[in-house]
């Protein structure tokens, strides 16, 4: 895929992630087929469940949160075979399983920060292993360009 589309999809994932009300981690996901957007998702509580930052402790927040990848998959309401997903943070094992199960064939993700890896490195290793075994390609990007481009 042309780099201008890769840049656009990463910009879109970052924008969608900014819609999350999570004060500590805002994650965005964009599912595409070719250069067409199929679905979007960000991390947050289910529709109708109060998502005020001050209502739950960290453990409860993790229990209630739907991840960006899950939201994008649920919102799509269509077959996702041979689609690709663009994410701001590498998928956890539960999201990796859902990505594999839906038939998404490529995961695009920026190389994660040292801070992120210190907290989630073990889970990333599990997800990577699952993707390899299932034949899902992972495209690590050094630093997606997030500046506006007229390309």
Topology (elements, then pairings):
Blueprint lengths: L2 H15 L10 E6 L2 E7 L15 H7 L3 H9 L7 E4 L5 H10 L3 E5 L3 H21 L2 E5 L10
Parallel strand pairs: 3-4, 4-5
Antiparallel strand pairs: 1-2, 1-3
Helix pairs in contact: 4-5
The end-to-end distance, rounded to whole angstroms, is 14 Å
Q: Which residue ranges are poorly predicted, with pLDDT under 50 across at least 5 consecutive positions?
A: 146-151
Write down how many β-strands occur, each being a DSSP E stretch of 2 or more residues: 5
Largest sheet at a glance? 5 strands, mixed
Mean pLDDT, all residues:
89
- Strand proportion, as a percent range, falls in 15-25%
**Radius of gyration over all CA atoms, rounded:** 15 Å
- H/E order of the elements? HEEHHEHEHE
What's the arrangement of strands in the largest beta sheet? Answer: 2-1-3-4-5
DSSP summary: helix tally: 5
Helix content: 40-55%
Dominant shape: globular
The SS-based structural class is: alpha/beta
Molecular structure report:
It contains five helices and five strands, in the order H-E-E-H-H-E-H-E-H-E. With 151 residues, it is of the alpha/beta class. The chain is 41% helix and 18% strand. It has helices at residues 3-17, 58-64, 68-76, 93-102, 114-134; strands spanning 28-33, 36-42, 84-87, 106-110, 137-141. The protein has a five-stranded mixed beta sheet with strand order 2-1-3-4-5, sandwiched between helices. Residues 146-151 have low confidence and may be disordered.
């Amino acid at each position: 895929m042309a780099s201008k589309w890769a840049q656009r999809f990463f910009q879109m994932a970052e924008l969608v992630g900014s819609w999350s009300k999570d004060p500590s981690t805002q994650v965005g996901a964009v599912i595409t087929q070719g250069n067409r957007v199929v679905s979007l998702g960000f991390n947050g509580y289910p529709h109708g469940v109060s998502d005020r930052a001050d209502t739950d402790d960290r453990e409860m927040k993790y229990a209630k949160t739907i991840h960006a990848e899950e939201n994008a998959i649920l919102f799509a309401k269509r077959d996702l075979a041979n689609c690709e997903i663009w994410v701001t943070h590498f998928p956890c094992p539960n999201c990796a399983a859902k990505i594999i199960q839906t038939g998404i064939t490529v995961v695009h993700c920026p190389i994660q920060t040292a801070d992120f890896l210190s907290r989630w490195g073990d889970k990333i290793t599990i997800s990577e292993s699952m993707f390899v075994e299932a034949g899902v390609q992972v495209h690590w990007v050094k630093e997606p360009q997030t500046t506006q481009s007229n390309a």
